[in-house]
Amino acid sequence: MSILQKNILNASDIHFPEYHKVYSISQLGNFIDYRTTLEEDAKFRLESLMSDLDKHGMIHPILLSHTIAYSVSVGHQRVWYAKSKGYTHIDCYEVPNQFAWDKVFSYTHSNDYWQNSNRKT
Q1: Which of 8, 15, 92, 105 has the most crowded Cβ, counting Cβ within 10 A?
Q2: How far is 85 from 1, CA to CA, in rounded Å?
């Protein structure tokens, strides 16, 4: 793959285009390596999310910290998914302040993916 080629994990809902960016996964700090042993509940949630992403794709971009450049605030598992599936880049929300972070978080936050395995496509 040349430097100019990108394999992007795109989000299907860019609700805040003013904050939308695409970053290389290698740029992102605060990355969690999920190859380590997880507790059973955490493993179930990760497997459920990965299955949901396989079926439906990523709905919302990940959310970066507004205080630490390129640091993942919300979306560690989606970054793990992207990295493990060979993506080089991922859709992100990069917000300028806490007010914007709160607005984006409250719109995009959901634990429904692992509870709703029968979601329609």
Answers
A1: 92
A2: 15
Task: Report DSSP state, residue 29.
Answer: B
3-state secondary structure 46-110: HHHHHHHHHHHCECCCEEECCCCCCEEEECHHHHHHHHHCCCCEEEEECCCCHHHHHHHHHHHCC
Name the burial class of residue 59, with classes exposed (0-12), middle (13-18) and buried (19+) by CB atoms within 10 angstroms of its CB: middle
Q: What residues contact residue 49 under an 8 Å CB cut-off, 6+ apart?
A: 77, 78, 81, 113, 114
Structure tokens at 36: 């380590």
Per-residue pLDDT 10s for the chain (121 aa) are 445 568 999 999 999 999 999 999 999 987 676 766 567 777 787 888 889 999 999 999 999 999 999 999 999 889 989 998 999 999 999 999 999 999 999 998 865 544 444 443 3
